[in-house]
Specification:
377 residues, mainly alpha, Citrate Synthase, domain 1, Cytochrome p450-Terp, domain 2, globular, binds coenzyme A, Citrate_synth-like_sm_a-sub, Citrate_synth-like_lrg_a-sub
C-alpha cells in the first residue's frame, strides 16, 4: 500500500484550538473570537495577552492585577545577564533569546510544576521578562550599558525605553504596540506547533518555548522580518532618492531576483493565498512611521517590490513585510527584529501550551520509509 504523504503537513488538521482562527477565505484572523484589527486598534498589548491566556477580555481588577505583576517582573535576571554576557557579540540575537529562556527555565522554582496556575505564572513572568533580554542584547552590541525598567511606563513604552534609553514618542509607541498585537498569535504555525509537540511529551513550559524560538529563527518563519530588511539593504537604501526612483530600482531588483528563481522573504504564506489579514493594519503602522520619520524613499522600495512581485507571480506580502521596515525606522538593529517577534509570540505559544496540556495526546506522526530494503551484514 502506498501511503498518502502530506509533505510539510500541508493541509493536515492536527487538532482543535480555541486560541485563534485563521480564515484564508475571508482573510480574517480572530483571537478568541475577536478580529485582530479591532484588538490592534483599541487594546493595550497587555490586555491582548490576558485575552489569549484566559479566553476572555480582562475586567478592571484583572487588568490592574496584571499591570502590577508585569511591571514588577521586568528587570533582567542577573543569571540571565551573566549567561548573555558569555555569548559572542556576533552570534545571532535569536541565539541569545533562546539561551535566556532556557536559563530562566533552569532556575525557575516552578519549572517542573505543570499545573494550570503554575503554567500561567510562568507565562506571565516570561512575558514581562523578555523585553529586557532584547533591549540589553541590542545595547551590549552597541557597547551601551543596561537600562533599568521603569514602572511608570506601559509594556510598549518600557520596551522602547529599555532599548534606546529615552522615552519614545507616542506615534512610535503606538506602532510598536500594534506590531506586538499582530505578532501575538497565529494558530498552528511552525513555532507554535513546535511548542505543542514539546508540550505533548509532558516536558516543561520553558523547554517548549525554547524549542519554539528555534523554529521561529528560520527565514521561512519569523526570520523573514529581518530578511526583508536585508533585501532593502541589498537593493540599497538612499534617503536622498525620491519615492519613484527607489520604486523603479526595487522593481528592477525584484524582476532580476525572480528570474534567478530566488525566494524573496516577506512574500507568500502557507495558509493565506490571497492576502495576509494582518498586513493592512501593519502597513498603516508603517505609513505612520514613514510620515513621522519623513522617509518616503523607503516606501518607494516597499511599493516597487510589492508591485513587481504582484505582477510577476501574484504573490502578496505577509506580516513580516511591513513589520521589517517599521522596526528599522524605530531604530532597532535588523537582527533584533525576530527577537521582537518572540516577545510578542510568547503570548500565543504559552496559550497553546496550556491548551495542549489540558487535552494532551503525544504528537507523533508516521513516516513512509524509502531507504534500502532489509539487508544484512
Ligand atoms: N518568493 C518567490 N517565490 C515564492 C515565494 C516568495 N516569497 N513564496 C512562494 N513562492 C513561490 C514558490 O517558489 C512556488 O513556486 P513554484 O510553484 O513555481 O515552485 C509557489 O510560490 C508556491 O510556494 P510554496 O513555497 O510551495 O508555498 P508554501 O505554502 O510551501 O510556502 C512560505 C509558504 C511562507 C514558506 C513561502 O511563501 C516563502 O518561503 N515565503 C518567504 C518566507 C516568508 O516570508 N515567510 C514568512 C511567512 S509569514
Amino acid at each position: 500500500m502506498t501511503e498518502e504523504i502530506h509533505k510539510g503537513l500541508a493541509g493536515v488538521v492536527a487538532d482543535h484550538t480555541a486560541v485563534s482562527k485563521v480564515n484564508p477565505e475571508s482573510n480574517s484572523l480572530l483571537y478568541r473570537g475577536y478580529p485582530v484589527q479591532q484588538l490592534a486598534a483599541e487594546l493595550a498589548f497587555e490586555e491582548v495577552a490576558l485575552l489569549l491566556w484566559n479566553g476572555e477580555l480582562p475586567d478592571a481588577a484583572q487588568k490592574e492585577e496584571f499591570r502590577a505583576f508585569e511591571r514588577s517582573h521586568r528587570a533582567l535576571d542577573p543569571r540571565v545577564k551573566s549567561a548573555i554576557d558569555l555569548l559572542p557579540l556576533d552570534c545571532h540575537p535569536m541565539d541569545v533569546g533562546r539561551t535566556a529562556v532556557s536559563v530562566l527555565g533552569a532556575n525557575h522554582p516552578l519549572s517542573e510544576d505543570s499545573s494550570p496556575e503554575a503554567e500561567l505564572t510562568k507565562a506571565k513572568e516570561l512575558f514581562a521578562a523578555f523585553p529586557a533580554v532584547v533591549a540589553y542584547d541590542q545595547r551590549r552590541r552597541r557597547e551601551l550599558q543596561l537600562v533599568e525598567p521603569r514602572e511608570d511606563l506601559d509594556y510598549s513604552q518600557n520596551f522602547l525605553w529599555m532599548t534606546f534609553g529615552e522615552e519614545a514618542p507616542e506615534e512610535v509607541v503606538d506602532a510598536f504596540r500594534v506590531s506586538m498585537v499582530l505578532y501575538a498569535e497565529h494558530s498552528f504555525n511552525a513555532s507554535t506547533f513546535t511548542a505543542r509537540v514539546v508540550t505533548s511529551t509532558l516536558a516543561d513550559l520553558h523547554s517548549a518555548v525554547t524549542a519554539a524560538i528555534g523554529a521561529l529563527k528560520g527565514p521561512l518563519h519569523g526570520g523573514a522580518n529581518e530578511a526583508v530588511m536585508h533585501t532593502f539593504e541589498e537593493i540599497g537604501i538612499n534617503p536622498d532618492e525620491t519615492r519613484e526612483e527607489a520604486a523603479a530600482r526595487a522593481k528592477a531588483w525584484m524582476e532580476q531576483a525572480l528570474a534567478e528563481k530566488r525566494k524573496v522573504m516577506g512574500f507568500g504564506h502557507r495558509v493565506y493565498k490571497s492576502g495576509d489579514s494582518r498586513v493592512p493594519t501593519m502597513k498603516q503602522a508603517l505609513d505612520a512611521m514613514v510620515d513621522y520619520y519623513g522617509r518616503g524613499e523607503l516606501m518607494g522600495l516597499y511599493d516597487g517590490l510589492e508591485a513587481a512581485m504582484g505582477e510577476a507571480k501574484n504573490i502578496l506580502p505577509n506580516l513580516d513585510y511591513p513589520a521589517g521596515p517599521t522596526y528599522h525606522l524605530m531604530g532597532f538593529d535588523t537582527e533584533m527584529f525576530t527577537p521582537l517577534f518572540i516577545a510578542a509570540r510568547i503570548t500565543g505559544w504559552t496559550a497553546h501550551i496550556a491548551e495542549q496540556r489540558a487535552n494532551n495526546a503525544l504528537i507523533r506522526p508516521l513516516s513512509a520509509y524509502n531507504g534500502p530494503e532489509e539487508r544484512h551484514l
